[in-house]
Amino acid sequence: MYDRKAAVRYADKWWDSRNPAFPAFEDDCTNYISQCLLAGGAPMHGYPNREKGWWMRNGTWSFSFTVAHSLRWYLGTSKKGLTARQVSTAEELDLGDVIAYDFQGDGRFDHSTIVTAKDGTMPLVNAHTYNAYHRTWDYKDSYAYSPNAKYIFFKINDQFS
């Protein structure tokens, strides 16, 4: 069972620092989101194949654990362990859900965030790389934003297979 509150507690605890139990990356957004999902009870699988599943173990990890574009495809296609379904709008998301960002609109997803609060129906997110705490999900005030930006909204499934 996905514990959304535990995922958010982790996200709020580590939003502006790095958990020393995990490797830190220059582009750390997806590693951080994966840690939040893990704190919420998401099961890892696929070790040792870095191109399969979602996992971190023995000093190595799957691409989906640390690379935004890979996590986007993992969440969009996974049928085992950590799974999600895509929804049409950010307002459909709950705490602990994930947003994938393609800032250039070129089909390559380059950022991941986790929903950690809501302002009415507007999701607020936490992120790493450029640390963010309860910021508006759309990043329209970010240097990375462009009018071509595309987003994918993932509702994490509460039950794991």
Structural class: alpha+beta
Beta strands, count: 8
Percent range for β-strand residues = 15-25%
Q: Which sequence of SSEs, written as H and E, runs from N to C?
A: HHEEHHEEEEEE
Mean pLDDT: 96
Give the termini distance in whole angstroms: 10 Å
Strand order of the largest sheet: 3-8-4-5-6-7
What are the segments in which pLDDT stays under 50 over at least 5 consecutive residues?
Answer: none
Helix content: 10-25%
| Main sheet summary | 6 strands, antiparallel
* Shape, principal axes of CA atoms: globular
Number of helices: 4
Report on this model:
There is one protein chain. The longest helix has 11 residues, at 4-14. The mean pLDDT is 96. It is built from four helices and eight strands. The protein has a six-stranded antiparallel sheet. Strands 1-2 form a two-stranded antiparallel sheet. The protein is α+β, with helices and mostly antiparallel strands. The chain starts with a helix and ends in a 5-residue tail after the last strand. Helix 1 packs across helix 2. A hairpin with a 4-residue loop joins strand 6 and strand 7 (132-136).
